[in-house]
Amino acid sequence: MSTRDTEGRRFRVQSLKEYLQKQKQIEQQLRESEECYRNLLEFSPEPIAVHQKGRVVYINPAGLRLMGSDSKEEIIGRPILDFVHPGYRDVVAERVRKIEKNETVEILEEKLIRSDGQVIDIEVLPVRITYMGEPAVLLICRDITERKRVEQALRERDANYRIIEQHMTDLIGVLDIHGIVTYISPSYQTILGDPPEYCMGKFLFEKVHPEDLPRAKRLFHEMIRTKTPRQAELRYKHADGHWITMEANGAPVIEENGEVSKIVFVARDITERKRTEELLRKADKLSLVGELAAGVAHEIRNPLTALKGFVQLLQAKAENHPDYKPEYFEIMLSELDRIHFIVNEFMLLAKPQVSNFQPKDIRILMQHVVALLTTQAIMNDVQIRTEFESDIPLVTCEENQLKQVFVNILKNAIEAMPNGGDLMIQMKMYSSEKVLIRFVDQGCGIPEELIPKLGNPFFTTKEQGTGLGLMVCYKIIETHQGCIHISSEKDKGTTVDIILPVHVREVRE
């Protein structure tokens, strides 16, 4: 064998040794990598499982804990769908098919059935891998049962808040420290007429009554300065222009640094309550005047009759006297008649109300009253117009008393229009159980600050008035279980609303 052949053989042997050595190194690295990979899976805190052809071939200890099992043999070899809640099996099967086709899939939330039968929520990320030389799917799982429970609780709480927010009658709002609205509840529209979006980002106090604005601002700044709640009654302008009385309770929200960051307030429309309180006060006054009248009227009537009789007797005897002045007797008799008129007004308050209430058509009553006052209206250049709904039910009432109320209000309206104008009488249903009678004149009007005093004894805006006429009207309407509301604007006219319950048998279904 030549030297050349010997060297070639030695080279090939050396190369083979190097190849085998490298192969051993690669195998060692693979074993180390596999061991490292296995350790990574085994000691991972995340539940991990591998399935091939739809069956579980591997699960780590964290996966066993997730499944509520102590034995891998209980899990390995079983179809993966055995552990999936029936409601999710079709979705999971479709995802398995996509992965087998090497399509990309996203993280899925599903429900898992544990070995003990308990159903839990999990989050699964599937990854296509090769396991034991065969295609497989590695599942990285996470128990999200607690998270789902918290999310559901939050959703239910938010749903409850929305129900409360949508159906509560109180107004809830949040202001920044400059009084700008950052949140307002939907009830804003129910109470004040505008959609909630109207006032978002606006200064809340811009629609507060000018007389109440200084107090509102003062209380707001006091709340921020003292970091204590405040309460106030404020008049707020409705979208249609009238004023609503609101009772507001504000509380500062104090941050960790001790500073006020916002103001939360709850407000309630108390307009009707204030009106009811005013009616009760007037009712008390009427009751007091009635008691007073019962004692005073009888004491006055008898001597008044005697005085008038003697004055007439003296007048008859003095007619032939040379110093006879008929105007003196006329003045005395006129003043006696005025006293008699006032006493009669008192007696209406003192008398027990007639209990003979009968169902009546108030449209006919009103037509009789209008016919009675038409002549006076024409003399004052006043046009009386009527608008009556056709289906007004009967009203249980004492006919003459209601006529007295209508006459009083119509006479006041005519006298308030010395230069003439239109007097509108409207009659319509206020609700299914009440009827509204509205008198609208174009007279001189009444200053807003005087309206609350109307109905008080001896308060009147007329030079020759006593104030008792309107007081009697309040008394009569009160005995009819109704109410009177008066609104007016100086030099533009007055509106008087009378609301009465309809006859029980005529109440609409």
TrEMBL record:
Keywords: ATP-binding, Kinase, Nucleotide-binding, Phosphoprotein, Sporulation, Transferase, Two-component regulatory system. The keyword DNA-binding does not apply. GO terms for biological process: sporulation resulting in formation of a cellular spore. One of its GO terms (molecular function) is ATP binding. Residues 33-103, 157-227 form the PAS domain. Residues 106-156, 230-282 form the PAC domain. InterPro entries: HATPase_C_sf, HATPase_dom, His_kinase_dom, HisK_dim/P_dom, HisK_dim/P_sf, PAC, PAS, PAS-assoc_C. It holds the Pfam family PAS. Residues 295-504 form the Histidine kinase domain. Its EC number is 2.7.13.3. It catalyses: ATP + protein L-histidine = ADP + protein N-phospho-L-histidine. PANTHER family: SENSOR HISTIDINE KINASE, SPORULATION KINASE A. This is histidine kinase.
